[in-house]
Amino acid sequence: MGGECVLRASDRRQEASRDTWFLQGWKSGKFLIKGSVAGGAVYLVYDQELLGPSDKSQAALKKAGEVVPPAMYQFSQYVCQQTGLQIPQLPAPPKIHFPIRDSWNAGI
């Protein structure tokens, strides 16, 4: 009878160590994914020169405004096609005109 209790206790320890290993791996994976997304965002900002002169930033913002809505529509169509779900048609996004050059250092 005593041997069974020892085996069960050791089995529990092995399961606990497996669970701990899995959780550590899961946390590490989440950290790597978040770090990759953050690194990609920093690279994109650097590559597009968004922190450079305001005319380049304004051109990049205008380009993003032209590219993002069609890309979102294509992605939603792809999801509908792959999953068979019907996504209701969303209203058009509002047109946002924010001249960066006019407000640059306006608070100083």
From TrEMBL:
Annotated transmembrane regions: none
Subunit structure: Component of the mitochondrial contact site and cristae organizing system (MICOS) complex.
Keyword Transport appears in the UniProt entry: no
Function of the molecule: Component of the MICOS complex, a large protein complex of the mitochondrial inner membrane that plays crucial roles in the maintenance of crista junctions, inner membrane architecture, and formation of contact sites to the outer membrane.
Record-stated family: Belongs to the MICOS complex subunit Mic13 family.
Keywords: Membrane, Mitochondrion, Mitochondrion inner membrane, Transmembrane, Transmembrane helix
Superkingdom per UniProt: Eukaryota
Membrane topology field: Single-pass membrane protein
Protein name stated in the entry: MICOS complex subunit MIC13
Any GO BP: cristae formation
Subcellular location: Mitochondrion inner membrane
Pfam families to which the protein is assigned, alphabetical: QIL1
GO cellular component: MICOS complex; mitochondrial crista junction
